[in-house]
Amino acid sequence: MNTIPTPLFDFHAHTTASDGTLTPTELVTLAKQLGLIAMAITDHDTIAGLPDGSAKAKEFGIYFLHGVELNTDASGVEVDILGYFVDIEDPTFINMVEYRQGERIRRATEMVSKLIELGFNITYERVREIAGGVIARPHIAQALIENGYASSQKDAYARLIGFGAPAYAKRDPLKPEVAIKHIKSAGGVPIIAHPGLIGDDSIVHDLLNQGAEGLEAYYAYHTKEQQDKYLAIANDYNVIVSCGSDYHGPNRNKNKMLGSVVTPIQVMETLVDKVQEAWHTYKIKAVK
What we know:
Blueprint lengths: L7 E3 L13 H11 L1 E6 L8 H11 L2 E12 L2 E8 L6 H27 L6 H8 L5 H10 L6 H9 L14 H10 L3 E4 L8 H9 L4 E6 L4 H14 L2 E5 L20 H23 L1
Parallel strand pairs: 1-2, 2-3, 6-7
Antiparallel strand pairs: 3-4, 4-5
Helix pairs in contact: 1-2, 4-5, 5-6
């Protein structure tokens, strides 16, 4: 007896617009090759890759959600907030992500300076060349690898530029509840990314009470126990769930393949319904 293949979709992936290794066009092309029917590009603190990604997805007939991943800080704990179907022409949202990009430059400059003080022969100019777009820690890690100072991104983070390491620099303290408000104000739906990586479920509960509208329960690096726990929490709060591989492309620390998180089709349908409802409400308010 033949079985119908489970439709594949992925709502968490990165491109060269932030710290991925594939361009938006290349990522969407890969999605087509893998048979995905829907996807989102969720680059860190930037929406620069969305126009190219959207155009290529339209060409291939892939349902495409505008996305972004805002990196935030909750009392010293890193918390990422995914935003889906934000208005990429909203001036307030554009100003916010442009400020965030400036802060990434400040942070990268600080980390490179610390590395130079520690005796490592790398330059900020080379890090910018590697990045191409928004600068992120993987680009600094790549510069270290090129010069033989680290064997991998994981090694670079553990010894040099990860949290608590000698050349680590703090992110600017965007609060997750503020990120949630920014996403909603731009017509998007805010989802707590990979809640199992936060390490403190009290933060998850607090953000759900402060307006987060879902959890990324189906996540490539969650255990089955974590997945089930966050599905139950989402059910308790009557919020939606999302799914994502957090694919960054070849030669990145997070390398689970795009579309590798096989998820019930209802997850996609519910997310799409939610973002369309939010967008409809946003456009009505914009007219008034």
